[in-house]
Specification:
308 residues, 4-stranded antiparallel β-sheet, 10 helices, alpha+beta, 7-stranded mixed β-sheet
């Protein structure tokens, strides 16, 4: 039996202005998975720790993603999946994406990498479709590619890897409440004004340009969401207060991570990232809610092997 033990990183989706198209890969937060090939010709989820998730492969995002891969592979093989969850479901930092991406990455690795990373993103998106009703790639793409990613197109799928400025550090606060992706999508309006769309396009272009130019001021000016954040922020207790404190403490920008409730900042340098973390922590303590704080470099490699 071939097997691989992997670390699957958490991710920040949207990055304020890039709803469903921009994402970033974190380095210090993530799940672990063990993927094995067997001679059973079955896909089995044999162990889950850290979360109450279904063992039925049709109802588990990892199982659904692997089913999509094996349908394309066109050969019958058995797969056993063990999932060790450290990313809480509904946290806004890519819990379902980690399971989906890790499962297909592990199977592909054990098969000798017959599929490209872009193809793996498409398979993992089937898991995201199960989780949220929408086959989006803004979490699975950075988990698989590493770094920052731009989904230029969904049909056909086209993903661009973006540069990572060396001093860029993320701070994430995760309130211990759950915001389901499906619920967070339900509050979004299907039509926006042309004026707001133009503003959002400019910010996306500015953020991408800032990453290429290593221009932290441009990155800061571009981390603005005039379409989604005003609607979703009402689902997150004290969002505006935390955002204000983070920005006053030197963050380049602050926004909702994915569908929330996690709130992210991008910062120049570790010293500022820690200062921002302290400010966010002090502000959020006022809510009386439990929360976690994470400080992380941007992970440029994505999924990593822990042990073969």
């Amino acid at each position: 039996m071939k097997s691989v033990h992997i670390f699957v990183p958490a991710t920040i989706a949207n990055l304020s202005c890039g709803f469903d198209v921009l994402g970033a890969c974190l380095d210090t937060i993530g799940d672990e998975m063990k993927i094995s090939l067997t001679d059973t010709s079955e896909i089995r989820i044999t162990k889950i720790e850290g979360a109450k998730l279904p063992y039925d492969v049709d109802k588990n995002v990892a199982g659904v993603a692997v089913m999509a891969l094996l349908k394309a592979y066109k050969k019958k093989i058995g797969v056993d999946i063990e999932i060790y969850k450290n990313i809480k479901a509904g946290s806004g930092i890519g819990s379902s994406a980690a399971s989906s991406a890790g499962a297909v990455w592990g199977v592909n690795y054990l098969l000798g990498n017959p599929f490209s990373i872009l193809e793996l993103v498409a398979f993992a998106m089937e898991g995201e479709k199960l989780a949220s009703g929408n086959a989006h790639a803004d979490n699975v793409a950075p988990a698989l590619f590493g770094g920052f990613t731009l989904v230029r197109s969904y049909a056909p799928l086209d993903i661009i890897s973006l540069p990572v400025p060396k001093e860029l550090i993320a701070t994430v606060i995760h309130p211990q409440i759950e915001v389901k992706t499906a619920d967070a999508r339900a509050v979004i309006k299907q039509n926006v004004s042309l004026q707001k769309a133009i503003q959002q396009w400019g910010n996306i272009g500015g953020l991408v340009s800032g990453l290429f130019m290593n221009d932290y001021d441009l990155i800061s000016r571009s981390l603005e969401d005039v379409i989604i954040e005003p609607l979703r922020s009402i689902l997150i207790p004290s969002f505006n207060e935390v955002k204000n404190m983070a920005n006053k403490s030197g963050a380049l920008g602050c926004g909702i991570s994915g569908s929330g409730p996690s709130i992210f900042t991008l910062n120049k340098g570790m010293k500022t990232a820690k200062k921002v973390a302290d400010a966010m922590e002090n502000e959020y303590q006022k809510t009386g809610l439990d929360f976690d704080i994470h400080i992380s470099k941007i992970n440029t490699t994505g999924i990593k092997i822990i042990k073969n």
